[in-house]
Amino acid sequence: MISRDEALVFMHQQIANENIRKHMYATEAVMRILAKRFDPEKEEEWALAGLLHDADYTSEVSAEEQGIIVSQLLEEKGYEIPESVKHCMASHNYESQFKPESKMDWSLFCSDTLTGLIVATALVRPDKNLASMKVKSVMKKFKDNAFARGTRREHIAMCEEKLGIPLRDFVELSLQAMQAISDELGL
């Protein structure tokens, strides 16, 4: 399996936009914390799916192919990617033909858009500081549909049904994961 260091090099070659990179770091952190809860032996696979899920997010890749092409690009470079990671990355894109099936798939599907909501919430705070942010702040913004309109709140809320995690707890786990790497996120 591709190492994290190799994945980082690949991701940086593919994605120049620093905000998209930070999104992938955040998603990797959330996937790690969820792997510890659901499948500790596969933590590296879960983290890899989070780190690379948007590494094909470019203007050349259609919405329907996003999350799918990344696996092809990795294989063309000779990297081995577990089938579970391939499916997870492909199924996080609600426009693709792949649908989430496993806990890993649903974890990425639900957390992908939540990381953006958490960042947006931090950016409107006076201190723009993720480290001091509370779950209450994120939940308030979650309920405000006018805030971060592109956030697919219904996908986040599926954490309750698909992962068995109450929404507030899911937000708390995700926030904690992102706070642990706040320096890397620049927040």
In short:
By secondary structure, the protein is an all-alpha fold. It has helices spanning 4-14, 18-38, 43-52, 69-76, 83-91, 103-123, 135-143, 153-157, 159-163, 167-179, 182-185.
Unreliable spans: none
How many DSSP helices? Answer: 11
Number of structurally distinct domains: 1
- How many β-strand stretches? 0
* Structural class assignment: mainly alpha
User: Helical content, roughly?
Assistant: 55-70%
How is the CATH topology named?
Answer: Hypothetical protein af1432
Judging by the overall fold, what is the CATH architecture? Orthogonal Bundle
Largest β sheet strand count, sense and barrel closure: none
Order of helices and strands: HHHHHHHHHHH
Overall residue-averaged pLDDT value = 93
**DSSP strand content:** under 5%
Termini gap: 31 Å
CATH class: Mainly Alpha
Q: What gross morphology would you assign? A: globular
CA radius of gyration is 15 Å
